[in-house]
Amino acid sequence: MASTISYTSLCSLLKLNQTNQKTPFSPSLSSPSSLVKIKNQLCFSSNFCSHLNKASIFMVKASETEATQSEKEEEDKYEEYEVEIIQPYGLKFTKGRDGGTYIDAIAPGGFADKTGKFTVGDKVIATSAVFGEEIWPAAEYGRTMYTIRQRIGPLLMKMQKRYGKVEEVGELTEKEIIRAERNAGFISDRVREIQVTNARRKKEQKEQRERELREGLKLSKNGKYEEALEKFESVLGSRPTGDELAVASYNVACCYSKLNQLQAGLSALKDAMEAGFEDFKRIRTDPDLANLRTSEDFETLMKKFDESFINENAINAIKSLFGFNKK
């Protein structure tokens, strides 16, 4: 397996800020009348606070109920559909702000595209289990991707038609706001606030991806490959950088290899090399990929990317043809 620093095997290595108070007025306690007044005041204060606290509780509960109802109404307005597809699916997924799984891209001419039902932005509600006819609700992104990749047989997907709305509903993007205000001839504090918020969010997301990579590394080192896969898949769904994409995909391939899930592993290995993972010597010698190398499709896949290996074979063939290899 590999880290973002040196592509080191994940199974062998682990990256890694008094107020001033007035003296309260103390009435004389020398007379019974004073004691009665104080008692009445205390009773009034206590009752008032008690009623206020109860009112606050009711307000919070009402607010929570309204928020839950609002979210339910928001979800109910989207159309749902079911579709069964087979591998290769021709779908690319991404993780939404809510942690859900959304369609990020549809391969033209692929199986999913030919169904005519999927659109970019649609949300995954449930999928077939890894095997059998059971349907599993789409929980967090990493677990959902683990299920999709490992599915044996046709994959039934329950989807929510989102019409491209992966982001939170009702909010304009930074580009949309800037475009509108540029056309109006000014840039408001709102845009600056969005820019600062987005910059902070990007930093937090990067820190989250790095944390999940480290956690995945630790899990895989301890032989917990399925749990590690959830971490690596979560990274892949969080708009990773080029290096992060390559390394996370390579780690996914290693985990699937360890689980002897060859097709899922080869698919992840292909993703890694397409993203720029070029340590072909490691791929051919990494113990974590030993099971993948037993597949007939391994060399076919490698020949598409490892030009140095192809050139070396060509040179050896020429040498053999002209007798240079003879002793």
- SSE series: HEEEHEEHEHHHHHHHH
- Which strand order spans the largest sheet, edge to edge or round the barrel? 1-6-4-5
Query: Count of DSSP helices?
Result: 11
Question: Low-confidence parts lasting 5 or more residues at pLDDT below 50?
Answer: 5-32, 34-67, 167-171
Structural class: alpha+beta
Q: Could you tell me the strand content as a percent range?
A: 5-15%
Q: What is the global morphology?
A: globular
What is the helix fraction of residues, given as a range?
40-55%
Mean pLDDT score, rounded?
A: 75
Question: In whole angstroms, how far apart are the ends?
Answer: 40 Å
Q: How many strands? A: 6
Characterize the biggest β-sheet: 4 strands, antiparallel
Q: What is the gyration radius calculated from CA atoms?
A: 30 Å
Question: What would your notes on this structure say?
Answer:
- The protein has 327 residues and is of the alpha+beta class.
- It contains eleven helices and six strands.
- The strands form two sheets. It has a four-stranded antiparallel β-sheet. Strands 2-3 form a two-stranded antiparallel sheet.
- A hairpin with a 5-residue loop joins strand 2 and strand 3.
- About 20% of the residues have low confidence.
Brief summary of the model shown:
About 55% of the residues lie in helices and about 10% in strands.
List keywords for this structure.
327 residues; alpha+beta; four-stranded antiparallel sheet; two-stranded antiparallel ribbon; 54% helix
How does the SSE layout of this entry go?
Layout: H1 32-76, E1 80-85, E2 91-95, E3 101-106, H2 111-115, E4 123-128, E5 135-137, H3 141-150, E6 155-160, H4 174-184, H5 189-221, H6 225-236, H7 242-258, H8 262-274, H9 280-285, H10 296-303, H11 307-321
Antiparallel strand pairs: 1-6, 2-3, 4-5, 4-6
Helix pairs in contact: 3-6, 5-6, 5-7, 6-7, 7-8
